[in-house]
Prior knowledge:
The complex is a heterodimer of chains A (66) and B (577).
Chain A: H1 5-25, H2 41-65
Chain B: H1 7-27, H2 34-39, H3 46-57, H4 60-73, H5 86-102, H6 108-115, H7 118-151, H8 155-203, H9 206-220, H10 247-265, H11 267-274, H12 279-293, H13 296-311, H14 318-321, H15 335-343, H16 348-384, H17 391-422, H18 424-450, H19 456-476, E1 477-479, E2 495-497, H20 500-525, H21 558-575
Parallel strand pairs in B: 1-2
Helix pairs in contact in B: 1-8, 1-16, 3-8, 3-11, 3-12, 3-16, 4-13, 4-16, 5-10, 5-12, 5-21, 6-7, 7-8, 7-16, 7-17, 7-18, 8-13, 8-16, 8-17, 9-13, 10-18, 10-20, 11-12, 11-16, 12-21, 13-15, 16-17, 17-18, 18-19, 18-20, 19-20
Amino acid sequence: xxxxxxxxxxxxxxxxxxxxxxxxxxxxxxxxxxxxxxxxxxxxxxxxxxxxxxxxxxxxxxxxxx
Amino acid sequence: xxxxxxxxxxxxxxxxxxxxxxxxxxxxxxxxxxxxxxxxxxxxxxxxxxxxxxxxxxxxxxxxxxxxxxxxxxxxxxxxxxxxxxxxxxxxxxxxxxxxxxxxxxxxxxxxxxxxxxxxxxxxxxxxxxxxxxxxxxxxxxxxxxxxxxxxxxxxxxxxxxxxxxxxxxxxxxxxxxxxxxxxxxxxxxxxxxxxxxxxxxxxxxxxxxxxxxxxxxxxxxxxxxxxxxxxxxxxxxxxxxxxxxxxxxxxxxxxxxxxxxxxxxxxxxxxxxxxxxxxxxxxxxxxxxxxxxxxxxxxxxxxxxxxxxxxxxxxxxxxxxxxxxxxxxxxxxxxxxxxxxxxxxxxxxxxxxxxxxxxxxxxxxxxxxxxxxxxxxxxxxxxxxxxxxxxxxxxxxxxxxxxxxxxxxxxxxxxxxxxxxxxxxxxxxxxxxxxxxxxxxxxxxxxxxxxxxxxxxxxxxxxxxxxxxxxxxxxxxxxxxxxxxxxxxxxxxxxxxxxxxxxxxxxxxxxxxxxxxxxxxxxxxxxxxxxxxxxxxxxxxxxxxxxxxxxxxxxxxxxxxxxxxxxxxxxxxxxx
Lengths: 66, 577
């Protein structure tokens, strides 16, 4: 019917790119990241989500080609 | 206690909404008849249904409640994810699913009809339909009030908007849309809550630091220093652990009666397995769901435990912001959102709030998709308009009914959310009562599956008696310190339990025991009306043995997966003993 990995893959890739760009832009804002113990969680989570999204897409499209 | 969201947080939420509705929109063209809409055409792969199985359970009340429970009771809350889930899931997969799926029943009430009789089905269908609508109303209310108080969102707006989004995708794509979205929601919940769990644990100095900082708190409550960070060690007596329950109550009350009642007979949950593409897939569903289930406490309970540390830390401003009730105690439902606010900056904060919204939607869509199935098949089709000889036209007709039921289910949920906002106490009471409906149901279904003699009259009476006796027990006992009749004792007070948890466990144990005794007793006094032939596929001893699945690799066999899940849960239990 539908391969759920495709929407999941796209959504996490888009959100990942968005959040990591936001992380890079706000990198200098140390007041904002005081909450998260000085760690720029946006860059870390953004990249993690992007990788997860791409893995989902890879498996979805690899199956399709067979 | 206000949290201000920035544009990026809203943008993340909007992207999520677009995808959720988009999945429904994409699936709408497959909804050709009632079977596709209400049963997902029995075509869902095992891993998808498995993640949906655990995601439906991960509703807003679960996430808010379990984080709050972590703050209230500490590490013992993890019991709900191990002993309170895993054995029941394994049992469902290995022993019950072959009869559920093999019977071709489209719902749990319909299984009761096939195995017993019409009246047993009717009783269960009506109770279940009422319960799902009220449950989704309660969770809608709980979430909207949280969003109003913390994010400053308009109560009516967030109530209607969240309901309309769920309506949108369940109306368009039915059960398939609910299930596929639950998988997406599962990943959003996990990824959205992950930064909170990691950051908060790092902040208190890891697991070692967490244990060290909880020790003085446990001692001040008059229990051993490690009683808030262990699971079984202090369950020798009910006075030495924060649950106020001894090992027997935990093992039987939670691990057997409550867990088996919930996971094995709640149609909301088992519907996900009913939608699987084959019997083998259906049997794997609870086990695939069990794998992530065991690790959820790290995301949901650990932040709650850390909230307890922050709340008692004189150097932290966490307590000054935390909403308190009239008695000066923290309102535990706010734990998760206060923790998100404490640790997450803009960006991941939006992700965390989206995770909360996703949990709400997965729970509510679960309720609605179970409601419309039970309404259409077990109430409408049995009592209002029976099937005709024209299968094609019937499929169209019941599809329409299913769709209308979806709209009505949502409207009734909204109505019950408003009732909840007016009479909060009544809803708390109903919620307690509903948690008891499933305990007698398990006894009746279990006896039906494994004892061919069990009769319809006996099952019906057992179901009713178990429920009424549980109600009576609730009316006669109270937890210590209860101020309202909602907590029990509304008839008289014969017994006082040290903690509410203990009262709940014992109510469930009584419900299940009474229902078993009554059903067994009456079975001997009444005649079996169903022939052995009719019961084939429904009762263990009358069902021919399956073809062997020995040719499959171990990880594709239910038994192999069950051993894997069981072993991991035992290892986790030993580590956090």
